[in-house]
Amino acid sequence: MTTPVVSIAFHSGFGHTAVLAEAVRAGAADAGAEVHLIDVGTITEEQWAVLDRSDAVVFGSPTYMGTASAAFHAFAEATSKRWAGQVWRDKLAAGFTNSGSKSGDKLHTLQFFQILAAQLGMHWVNLGLLPGWNSSTASENDLNRLGVFTGAAAQTDVDGGPDAVHKADVATAEHLGRRVARTAAVFLRGRTALAA
Ligand SMILES: Cc1cc2nc3c(=O)[nH]c(=O)nc-3n(C[C@H](O)[C@H](O)[C@H](O)COP(=O)(O)O)c2cc1C
Q1: The pTM is what?
Q2: A GO molecular-function term, please (predicted)?
């Protein structure tokens, strides 16, 4: 069976979102994918080539001023070179973000990722988890504790370091990585069958 290639294209200004990127990596690797972590702030031509040969690209950024960081936006603009020829068409895409406030308008960051994926002709993979922490018997340690469907959403107190990223958010990001890798494997098998 062909191994799906999953890349995580992320930016993290102060290390918090990097913890989630590592969790997505761990989840995708656990599901059998070849995984590449790519910091878009220092992306090289070799890493662009890795993205070009990936079956799935997971976008990740902190939420800054209600959207992705400037470094991530620079990366998004640079993908326009792939947009013109629809080079990434039919790859899978997914996303994660982290903010200081419980909401912090981070849904907008995930929706920006969705639109980026759509412009590039990619297929969006959502989180695939029911909301947690939304009843009297629920816990803040539930998976998807912030109740977002679009992607993996995390919240880290602004006075905490990267080790303060919530364990439930880390587990939710791992789930997203596993889900993307498994979905990529299904797409790969389908492509192989169609080509036969
Ligand atoms: C320039 C800037 C803008 C920010 N804007 C928001 C925001 O709109 N909403 C929010 O909840 N947190 C906001 N934050 C807090 C960050 O999202 C939060 O500290 C996050 O953990 C940073 O992740 P990082 O360490 O990966 O950069 C902002 C932080 C900075 C530095």
Answers
A1: 0.98
A2: FMN binding
